[in-house]
Amino acid sequence: MTVAESEAHRLDKADPGHRHLFHVPPADGGRYPEAAYLAGNSLGLQPRATRAELLADLDAWGRLGVEGHLEGQRPWLPYHELLTGPVARLVGARPTEAVVMNSLTVDLHLLMVSFYRPAGRRTRILIEDSAFPSDSYAVRSQARFHGLDPDATVLRLRPRPGEDALRTADVTDLLAAEGDTIALVLLGGVNYLTGELLDIPAITAAGRAAGAVVGWDLAHAAGNVPLALHDWGVDFAAWCSYKYLNSGPGALAGVFVHERHLGRADLPRFEGWWSTDAATRFEMTPTSRPPATVEAWQVSNPPILAMGPVRTSLELFDSIGMPALRERSLRLTGYLERLLDEVTADRPLTVVTPRDPARRGCQLSVRIGAGSAGELTKRLRHEHGVVADAREPDVVRFAPVPLYSTYHDCWRVADALAATVAEVTP
Ligand SMILES: *Cc1c(COP(=O)(O)O)cnc(C)c1O
Question: Which InterPro entries match (predicted)?
Fold first, then answer.
């Protein structure tokens, strides 16, 4: 490695980020006390503020019992409304369009109940071939639910031969040619494996022009890249909060439904008592009166103790803002890319994430030419204190997270890869 460690330290002084607001795990091996944590795309680190905020909600329950629904600092009945403003701003939604509820795959199913309506020739669901498995299983089970053959119904889009990422034209050309058979487009905004950021506005426009409904899984996009879901005309979207949104393992998910669908009486929907208008909920009538907001998709009353960490994290994003985070993200990932260029030049390693910063978030995925990704990540962790994430058989993912990762973390990744993967001499 010719890039000096001192340069990383200098960059960290000039562009420090917000690491002090997070608990960083200790290193399990290597020369440094703290882990170089590059796995925030899998599970984000814990904000230091989360514990006290969570304990305050727990104490309210102890102190107030059932009265906590209406009393205390943060009454539980309207608790989810505390999250509405921050989550709406995070994804570029109107406050009526965004809500936090359930977990991601559950929400995708609830949304597909409303927005996957196969009819006539138009029955197919378009996903990417490298979709996260949960999404594949979800759409296949939706096809079966409608009495359709999943193999014939789910269309899996592959990159061109020899390419790792999709081109926008690969998607829009397909929509132009076969769009009249496609009922639903459901793609990952940022692909979990390659880190590719798709052109969400262009693909949304093409899908809608072809007559399809366009939904997005934003698990790897929310909190990673700026989003403008309302202005882009996205029909619906969902994302989890435990990756870039740092809300804890299995944390609740966010849901977006575009204004044009709010209040539509013709849409089928699975409902419960939280789907009815809050003002008349306790009249306990036998039929619901859904509000003309995304809250009509809520089913159950939310788990308050799980909402707390999401609220704490969303407030942090709200106070810093995605534009500033994206700026730092471009600098940090650009730096890691420069270091990886040097390390991969004479080793059996290839960065498969697009080189254009506009086509990716913070994650860089590296394909290894020999050995197992799992074995390599184990060595990185135990010999160098570098926490990355393996996707077998051959991809290792590194996500320098703009909130808490440092230039020195990036330097440690490159230094550890250089020490762990042998050079090949031509
Ligand atoms: C992380 C992730 C999931 C996980 O689904 P859960 O329902 O939260 O368990 C689903 N889809 C994508 C694209 C993901 O990245």
Answer: Kynureninase, PyrdxlP-dep_Trfase, PyrdxlP-dep_Trfase_major, PyrdxlP-dep_Trfase_small
Query: What residues does each domain of the chain span?
Result: 5-47+321-424, 80-301
The least confident of 99-113, 134-148, 273-287 is 273-287
Q: Give the 3-state secondary structure percentages of the chain, helix then strand then coil, rounded to 5.
A: 45, 15, 40
Residue 4 token pair:
């000096």
The residue contributing the CA closest to ligand 1 atom 14 is 219
- Rounded to the nearest angstrom, the distance between the alpha carbon of 103 and the centre of ligand 1 is 9
Rg (CA), the chain: 22
Per-residue model confidence (pLDDT) at position 424: 85
Its sign, for the CA torsion 351, 352, 355, 358, is: negative
Mean pLDDT in the chain?
96
Instruction: Classify domain 5-47+321-424 at the CATH class level.
Output: alpha beta
Q: What is the pLDDT at residue 29?
A: 85
Ligand 1 atom nearest the C-alpha of 220 is: 15
Is CATH 3.20.20.10 what the domain over 80-301 is classified as, yes or no? no
Q: Is the CB of 135 under 6 A from ligand 1?
A: yes
Residue linked to tokens 């009486």: 265
Nearest CA to ligand 1 atom 2: 219
Is residue 135 marked as binding? yes
Ligand 1 near 220 CB (within 6 A): yes
User: Taking the complete model, does pTM exceed 0.90, yes or no?
Assistant: yes
